[in-house]
Design goal:
Number of helices: 5
CATH class of the largest domain: Alpha Beta
Number of domains: 2
CATH topology of the largest domain: Translation Initiation Factor IF3
CATH architecture of the largest domain: 2-Layer Sandwich
Order of helices and strands: HEEHEHEHEEH
Structural class: alpha+beta
CATH superfamily of the largest domain: Translation initiation factor 3 (IF-3), C-terminal domain
Shape: elongated
Number of strands: 6
Distance between the termini: 82 Å
Strand content: 25-35%
Radius of gyration: 29 Å
Strand order of the largest sheet: 3-4-6-5
């Protein structure tokens, strides 16, 4: 249809001629209320932004010669980050002669990955870059509130018993 004819039809029906697909050959236009079209497209954009998930990368730094208790503490921090739904970048910092023994860091990262295997998956395998060795862990499942809901049902079951007594 010619542009002049489409514009005349739009004026007669008191609507706007809106180009909806400019890249198509020929370009696609529709007769519609332009204000309503703008509002609906803004609503769609807002909805898509709401469904996006912001990924946060937390970092945990270790040393190759870490003590057992310190390792357990750092592992607990990594677990807390993963349960919160965040990715974790684990960095092992080498100093001095430790740089000549990268297998120590590799073994430590493998041990950490095995210890938290049920919570996380290795997204980026251990990689040496300069004085540091890094590995990225991603949570396997979305953070859920199942423990709190089961506690709530247990609490509600206990409350009537207390009220009777």
């Amino acid at each position: 249809m010619r542009i002049e004819d489409a514009l005349r039809l739009a004026q007669e029906s008191e609507l706007d001629l809106v180009e909806v697909a400019a890249q198509a050959r020929p370009p696609v236009c529709k007769l519609m209320d332009y204000g309503k079209f703008k509002y609906e497209s803004a609503q769609k954009a807002r909805e898509s932004r709401r469904n996006q998930q912001l990924t946060v990368i937390k970092e945990q730094k270790l040393r190759p010669k870490i003590d057992t208790h310190d390792y357990e503490t750092k592992r607990g921090h990594v677990i807390r980050f993963l349960e919160g739904g965040n990715k974790v970048k684990v960095t092992i910092m080498f100093r001095g002669r430790e740089q000549s023994r990268p297998e120590l860091g590799y073994r430590l990262l493998q041990r950490l990955a095995e210890d938290i295997g049920d919570l996380a998956v290795v997204e980026a395998s251990p990689k040496q870059d300069g004085r540091n060795m890094t590995m990225v862990l991603a949570p396997t499942k979305k953070p859920g509130k199942k423990p709190s809901s089961s506690n709530a049902s247990e609490a509600s079951a206990e409350e009537p018993a207390e009220a009777e007594a």
